[in-house]
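Quick check before the chapter quiz. The format below is the same one you will see on the exam, so make sure you can read both the input and the output lines.
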Amino acid sequence: MSVKFVPVTASPAGTVSSVAEATRAVVQEFVAARLAGDRARLVALFADEVDWLLAENPAVPWIRPRSTAAECAAQFAELMEHTVPEDARASVDTFFVDGTDAVLMGHLSGTVRATGKTFEGPFALHLTVEDGRITRHHLYENSLSIAQACAP
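Here is the expected output.
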């Protein structure tokens, strides 16, 4: 998977709280672990129980309810099983951090292995980090494009 990540610097006054700095560091570690496909590191980054939101889509095999660290980390492996890894792209254009919350916005695209069809669209990912672990993972994406790419 290829990801273009645009780092964001501190505010002009240079006053970023230590909570926000810790959140930013965990989210950057999450992105690095996703890029590396490092499931063990992802499990360590997710809390034992996670508030996971990704609109259920029966046509898409890697989109399903999840709540544990292991289930959340497995989502990346399942995505790679069902898509063509070398066609996967994601760009992060915006990265906001406010205390324990972080929002990444960008664009993603890929190809479904079983159908050869492509999908694309914008995404927003809302993460919450508490005690150094991700407790919320809410992903909003173009689920229609993904479902159409999965359809035979």
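If your answer matched, good. Confidence is low (pLDDT under 50) at residues 4-15.
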